[in-house]
Amino acid sequence: MKVQGHFRLAILSAAIVALLAACSGGAAPENGASGDNGGTDGAGAPTEAEGGAPDTSPVTFTFFDKNVGDKFDNPVAKAITEKTGVFLEIQQPTGNPSEKLNLMLASNDLPDFLAIGRGDILDKYIAAGALTPLNDLIDQYGPNIKEMYGDMLNKTRSADGNNYYLANWYGLEQYPVFGFLMRMNVMKELGAGAKVDNGEAFAADEFVALLKAYQAKAPAVDGKPAYAMTFNGENMGAITGTFKGMFGIRPYYETDGGLQSDVRDPKYIEMIKFMNSLYRDGLIDPEWATNKTQQYEQKLASGAFFSTADAFWNLGKPNTILKEEAADPATQDEAQFYPYKVVAPGVDPKETTYGPKSSLGWDGIGISKSNKDPVRAIRFLDFLASEEGQYLMMWGVEGVHWDMKDGKHTPRPEVLEGFKKDWANYSKETGIRKWTWTIKNGPGSDGTPYDLIGRYETDPVSSLAIKNLADSSFDTAPYDNLGPAGGTPEAIMQQKVNETSSKYFPRMVMAPSEAEAVALYETMMKELEAAGLPELENIYTKNYNERKELWK
Predict the structure, then answer these.
(1) Span 464-521, pLDDT tens digits
(2) How far apart are CA 249 and CA 253, in angstroms?
């Protein structure tokens, strides 16, 4: 704690020195660079533009975005600058963004804005005093932020009661994530036609019957045997997320007011037994645990596999190939993998957990202590957070990319077509959906979604995913980032626990008998106990209870 205190003091001292140096004179920044406020009062705070309107004189801010390093010069960017007077120098996150963020913090060489993934690094920035508290700024200059974020500002507070960042992709959205993906045309051949698109869930035994029916006549491809299922060994989270969803397993096992690891949930070992039975019955590709992403996609595209467990959007490449190679163009959509809900015995279909979604969002957008004009900065974020800002970032420029018709935002056909043909390049060219700072989930006031490309016009796979699995969405926010702080001895314990769980999971699934799968589970639990799991669970519970108290 003493070391951390000295570090905070050093950061504060450096900030004071920098501030004194800035106030002592020196050449003014060129081209409206940070610090050129268009006039300041005696205390150094920026004044309002003539007439009381927000200052829109030219100003340049630096912005480190861990996700995107494109220049701020596309049509959307230019429209934002026209509205706010703010031009951004986007810092290219070359190499590992996390390493760059840690280096910037250690050297105190901070840009004006930062977009940081929620978690350890964002917590480090807050603990070091590197981010500006936003509460007073929002109260005075952030009416759109207060209106749009609402109670979310309460939930993103730090323990000291301050907001240090604005979340993006915030607010709970009923939208699916994981599912059991099956080829629709094969489902019809196997006699499941009545359920291919009616939204009904499959019972576990119905699903197993389909797998066995396929396996009984699975075609060989290039002399290699086919299997009913395969998985992406490089994405274990998608595999476990799908099967946990089937059993209604949540991020932690909550019992007696405390949180324990999900592996202690009695349903966890039942999940392992079920997966092990599929493997022992020869329904799962024996190479599943070592499949690389490219191998996995090639296998799915080959037509030799019937099902997988994954997030439905991860199958874009194999689905595209299956459509292109379909014999009948009129039914090519049916050649694709579609996501379905499978329900474990004794589990209420409404209690399945296929859709873990955090209402707290993905990233935190903060104003650094190096920013010399936090008022202009918060006004800029307030514009982006507004409904006007949301549609500008996600739909493009009115009259160019969309029009208002009958009171509703209406995209121009060429925009939808541009994204269908080449998402990445069209986004880069137009700026639409290139940056997602302060973006909110859900619809705007006219009922159209803020996320044009992700929600306005869904493809057949996404549409069926919503129909089949949206009701499995649940908010993970109460459970997010409850583990130990990075750099602590407990964090090392957590790493060991994670490594142990990851090591045993494929072994349990591929055990030669159910008894051996159970024995491996018991051995894993002993190793987890020795690695410090009980101590970690005390931390989970403590952090969980503190969060609930903070959110009151």
Answers:
(1) 999 999 999 999 999 998 999 888 999 999 999 999 999 999 999 999 999 999 999 9
(2) 8
Query: What ranges make up the beta strands (E) of 100-212?
Result: 113-117, 166-167, 178-183, 202-203
Nearest to 395 by CA among 465, 352, 443: 443
Helix 316-324 to helix 293-301 angle (10° resolution) is 30
Q: Which two tokens stand for residue 424?
A: 């990445």
72: left (phi over 0), alpha (psi -120 to 50) or beta: beta
Instruction: Tell me which H or E stretch contains 12.
Output: helix 2-23
Q: Parallel, antiparallel, or unpaired: how do β-strands 355-357 and 473-475 relate?
A: parallel
| Percent with pLDDT over 70 in the chain | 90
CA distance 340 to 310: 11
Residue partners of 93: CB distance under 8 A and separation at least 6: 64, 65, 66, 67, 68, 69, 100
pLDDT in tens, 112-159: 999 999 988 999 999 999 999 999 999 999 999 999 999 999 999 998
Phi–psi pair at 258, nearest 5 degrees: -120, 165
Instruction: Compute the Cα dihedral for 418, 408, 439, 174 and give only its sign.
Output: negative
Q: How many CB atoms lie within 10 A of CB 90?
A: 21
Tokens of 286: 């024996």
Q: Which residues contact 356 (CB under 8 A, 6 or more apart)?
A: 177, 241, 251, 473, 474, 476
Q: Which residues pair with 132 in a beta bridge?
A: none
Tokens of 442: 């859900």
Rounded to the nearest 10 degrees, what angle do helices 75-84 and 374-385 cross at? Answer: 120
172: Cβ contacts below 8 Å, ≥ 6 apart: 357, 359, 441, 473, 475, 477
